[in-house]
């Protein structure tokens, strides 16, 4: 009989609400590079210290290619998806940057700043509509605001005509909403893909000023990519961050309601929104499983040998609470003194979120507007009844009933 102890099962569970799993703090103190066991019985390495996570995410000896044996997949769906044609999110240099740069310029901070008036107008219009509908019974903030805002913005960038926005937003919600049946989610996925396919064909005939046209004119027509690549890249940009952004909006609202003094500070001074968003993206890590890699050769990480073919999960969620980098890390504090340290909610290194700039501007618009327009916005249910995502999934709030007066 083997006396070997199996490593702990991963993902760990949040103890309650939006609190990160308690195991991370213990491992940071005792075992910063350790084995965990995934759903399929595999034993990748879990890396929990900020400096080690940064080192993993910049190490060229590690790969993001999901077809490589040993790449840690988080569930059976992921394992199946790994067989699809890859987009840049799953590529290594030099292919990664070649494809990423086909769209990256549309999502930079500078570009997003030029879109700020449009994002503001979209947020204002959604709030007006929500307010006009009244809040008796309480209104789901996700349905009325947190979901349509980022959806309308990304669809606009891609080139989806206005009249299709509502339909596509519904498809996307069904696709990513954990409570849809598998069949409904898979149908919605196919509908989205087929919709994008038709959009690519339309832009082949008559390009306009949008992302799909840019891909068609600069890449597809000259033969750098094929039609399937154009569809997959557009699909990636459509779905990659939408659900995460929705969750960050909801988490932001709840976190502010839990910290009334900081909410009062933000209301009195909406220009605190960027500092709030910075702290929000440190405190809550709503995309905590993207930062995975597999070793192409043997490496030593913080004194631990990791062999070629072994998987690595670099926990940006744990790094964001690393007490060596962020003093008093479990305290939410928008007035936190900051130096050169950076939170890792958007990743690090070459795969760092391509749409971070856009995403931050959207969050800044939301949090400099929402409580200005609705100073008495509050939960429409008791705080203890907030519905969070499953404890072992990415932290999120799939629906948020609110009221105001
Ligand atoms: C608050 C919102 C968001 C968070 C927290 C977030 C987080 C992340 C993280 C952690 C990564 C790094 C993955 C890695 O290292 O492998 C990433 C990459 C990526 N994100 Fe985001 N993201 C957000 C919003 C968005 C949005 C709105 C979009 C699309 C419009 C998007 C598109 C992508 C893409 C395409 C990548 C892959 C980049 C690459 O591999 O080069 N994200 N994101």
UniProtKB/TrEMBL annotation:
UniProt GO molecular function: heme binding; iron ion binding; monooxygenase activity; oxidoreductase activity, acting on paired donors, with incorporation or reduction of molecular oxygen
Keywords tagged on the record: Heme, Iron, Metal-binding, Monooxygenase, Oxidoreductase
Listed Pfam families: p450
Top-rank lineage group of the source organism: Eukaryota
Gene3D superfamilies the record matches: Cytochrome P450 (1.10.630.10)
InterPro entries in UniProt: Cyt_P450 (IPR001128), Cyt_P450_B (IPR002397), Cyt_P450_sf (IPR036396)
PANTHER family per the UniProt record, alphabetical: P450, PUTATIVE (EUROFUNG)-RELATED
Protein family according to the UniProt entry: Belongs to the cytochrome P450 family.
Protein name in UniProt: Cytochrome P450 55A3
Organism listed in the record: Polytolypa hystricis (strain UAMH7299)
């Amino acid at each position: 009989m083997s006396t070997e102890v199996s490593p702990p099962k991963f993902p760990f569970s949040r103890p309650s609400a939006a609190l990160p799993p308690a195991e991370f703090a213990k491992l940071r103190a005792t075992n910063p590079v350790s084995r965990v066991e995934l759903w399929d019985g595999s034993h990748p390495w879990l890396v929990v210290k900020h400096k080690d996570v940064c080192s993993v995410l910049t190490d060229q000896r590690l790969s993001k290619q999901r077809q490589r044996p040993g790449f840690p997949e988080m569930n059976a769906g992921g394992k199946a998806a790994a067989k699809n044609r890859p987009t840049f999110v799953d590529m290594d240099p030099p292919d990664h940057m070649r494809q990423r740069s086909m769209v990256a310029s549309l999502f930079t901070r500078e570009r997003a700043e030029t879109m700020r008036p449009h994002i503001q107008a979209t947020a204002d219009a959604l709030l007006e509509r929500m307010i006009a509908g009244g809040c008796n019974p309480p209104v789901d903030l996700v349905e009325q605001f947190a979901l349509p805002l980022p959806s309308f913005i990304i669809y606009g960038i891609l080139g989806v005509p206005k009249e299709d926005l509502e339909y596509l937003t519904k498809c996307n919600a069904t696709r990513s909403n954990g409570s849809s049946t598998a069949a409904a989610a898979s149908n919605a996925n196919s509908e989205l893909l087929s919709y994008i396919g038709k959009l690519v064909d339309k832009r082949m005939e008559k390009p306009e000023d949008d992302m799909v046209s840019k891909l068609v004119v600069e890449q597809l027509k000259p033969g750098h990519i094929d039609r399937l690549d154009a569809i997959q890249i557009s699909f990636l940009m459509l779905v990659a961050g939408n659900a995460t952004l929705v969750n960050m909006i909801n988490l932001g609202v709840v976190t502010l309601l839990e910290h009334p003094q900081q909410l009062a500070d933000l209301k009195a001074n909406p220009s605190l929104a960027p500092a709030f968003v910075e702290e929000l993206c440190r405190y809550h890590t709503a995309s905590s499983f993207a930062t995975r890699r597999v070793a192409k050769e043997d490496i030593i990480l913080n004194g631990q040998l990791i062999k070629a073919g072994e998987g690595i999960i670099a926990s940006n969620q744990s790094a964001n609470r690393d007490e060596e980098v962020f003093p008093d890390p479990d305290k939410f504090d928008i007035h936190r003194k900051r130096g050169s340290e950076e939170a890792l909610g958007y990743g690090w290194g070459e795969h760092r979120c391509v749409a971070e700039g856009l995403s931050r501007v959207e969050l800044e618009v939301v949090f400099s507007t929402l409580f200005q327009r609705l100073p008495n916005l509050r939960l429409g249910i008791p705080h203890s009844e907030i519905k969070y995502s499953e404890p072992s999934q990415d932290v999120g709030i799939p629906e948020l009933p609110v009221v105001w007066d």
